[in-house]
Design a protein that fits this description.
By secondary structure, the chain is α+β, with helices and mostly antiparallel strands. The chain has 3 domains: 2-106, 3-Layer(aba) Sandwich (Aminopeptidase); 131-281, 3-Layer(aba) Sandwich (Aminopeptidase); 295-383, Nonspecific Lipid-transfer Protein, Chain A, CATH 3.30.1050. Helix content is 23%, strand content 33%. The protein has 10 helices and 19 strands. It has helices at 11-21, 89-103, 161-172, 183-188, 236-247, 266-269, 292-298, 346-353, 359-365, 375-383, and strands at residues 2-5, 42-45, 51-64, 68-80, 108-112, 125-126, 129-136, 151-156, 201-206, 212-222, 225-233, 254-260, 277-283, 285-289, 305-313, 318-327, 330-335, 342-345, 369-370. Strands 1-2-3-4-5-14-6 form a 7-stranded mixed sheet. Strands 8-9-10-11-12-7-13 form a 7-stranded mixed sheet, with helices on both faces. β16 (318-327) and β17 form a beta hairpin. The longest helix is centred in the N-terminal third of the chain and has 15 residues, at 89-103. One of its GO terms (molecular function) is aminoglycoside N-acetyltransferase activity.
Length: 395
């Protein structure tokens, strides 16, 4: 078996092989996968050239705490045919891919994990979280929450692609954990709604000057249920205006808001707190640091302090100890021989990197080992973000 790069001529074979690993059939014309970057794809092939495994990556930008934007490799389409599982194919592809990321100078990679048990062993850790919020129409009375000045315009998805692209791009630059949506995704309708051109109504919020600053993409998914694919808003006041619009819709019994961040304020705005039912609480974006010093110095910081991190990276057979020093919002990170404050796996460093997972929680869970009693609290203060990281993008 060998690992080889794919080309654009491999597109259909790549997609069909990838779907076969999940016992599924792609629907022609494979539009969902039209954004694949096959110059970043990999085939695992047998001696006679038959592909038995796939892996690929997208070129994204990721917003870090402090509204810092960095390139990020988005891992996708990873699979091995059932005839060739447990032969080291997946491990070979993942290690090959990590080496390619480093060769390109990328400091981190991200993915959405189809199975949570797989990717920790390759250094990825869950870093953002999401849930679904269901609100019955009868419990939709608001007790609090100011709405933004402006107005809401109702459009169809087919008529507002440029607006969605522009509003999302402004939003993702301000939210830690958010990924870019390259223009080719919007242009080809690759992905899930509202990127895809599947029929949707879109409530576009415009500010007092008429500039779009938020939207909610929705459809009626079953009798009485209005399902919101995503809500994008410049601030909480715009988000409140869009939530009110959805919940005041006629002839519905409930509204389902998909992809809500952990700090979504809607439940607290309702007169009946229990009216908002949370479900589907799950991980979303997983993060893997490829260059620890560069990654730690790239993000913004909000507390001064100093920590020695002893980091194990078994997937790459590496081990390093780093002195992280933060002063006035900027960090330095250098190798050190000092005694560690925290010992952790690189996957746990990925989990705490965006500020969505408290280091002290992983200490309590036994994932991170604290060598000083005050180290967990200091790490919590250092690694926090200005707001909960959240990723909406599916890839």
């Amino acid at each position: 078996m060998e690992i080889r790069a794919t080309t654009h001529e491999d597109h259909d074979v790549f997609v069909n092989t990838m779907f076969a690993t999940f016992a599924e059939f792609p629907e022609p014309p494979l539009k969902t996968w039209s954004a694949l970057e096959l110059d970043r794809g990999l085939f695992a092939v047998t001696a006679d050239g038959r592909p038995v495994g796939t892996a690929a990556a997208y070129s994204f930008e990721l917003t870090l705490p402090g509204q810092v934007i960095v390139p990020a490799a988005g891992v996708t389409a990873v699979g091995v045919l059932p005839t060739h599982r447990r032969r080291g194919v997946l491990t070979a592809m993942m290690r090959h891919q990590l080496a390619e990321f480093r060769a390109r100078g990328e400091i981190l990679s991200v993915l959405l994990a189809s199975e949570a048990l797989i990717y920790r062993r390759f250094g990825y850790g869950p870093a953002t979280y999401t849930h679904r919020l269901t609100v019955p129409r009868r419990g939709a009375a608001f007790a609090a929450g100011d709405t933004a000045p402006g107005a809401i315009e109702l459009l169809r998805r087919a008529d507002c692609g440029e607006i969605l692209e522009e509003v999302y791009d402004r939003y993702r630059r301000t939210r830690p954990g958010a990924l870019s949506r390259p223009h080719r995704w919007w242009a080809s309708g690759a992905g899930q709604p509202p990127i895809s051109t599947a029929p949707r109504y879109v409530a576009v919020h415009r500010d007092a000057d008429g500039v779009p600053d938020g939207y909610a993409s929705y459809s009626r998914t079953e009798p009485g249920t209005l399902t919101v694919d995503e809500t994008i808003a410049a601030d909480d006041a715009v988000s409140t205006a869009l939530s009110r619009f959805v919940l005041e819709h006629d002839l519905i019994t409930q509204a389902v808001f998909k992809q809500c961040p952990p700090d979504h304020p809607l439940r607290w705005q309702l007169a009946d707190f229990r009216a908002g039912e949370v479900s589907g609480d799950t991980d979303w974006l997983w993060v893997r640091l490829l260059d620890i010093p560069r990654a730690l110095t790239a993000r913004g910081w909000f507390t001064d302090g100093e920590l020695v991190l002893d980091v194990d990276d078994p997937a790459l057979g590496e081990h390093g100890r780093y002195l992280l020093t933060v002063r006035d919002g900027a960090a330095e990170c250098v190798p050190t021989d000092r005694e560690p404050d925290l010992s952790l796996d690189v996957s746990d460093l990925g989990s705490i990197y965006l500020g969505g997972t408290a280091p002290s929680l992983l200490v309590r869970a036994g994932n991170i080992r604290a060598h000083r009693p005050d180290a967990p609290a200091l790490a919590d203060a250092l690694f926090r973000a200005e707001r909960s990281p959240h990723c909406l993008h599916w890839f």
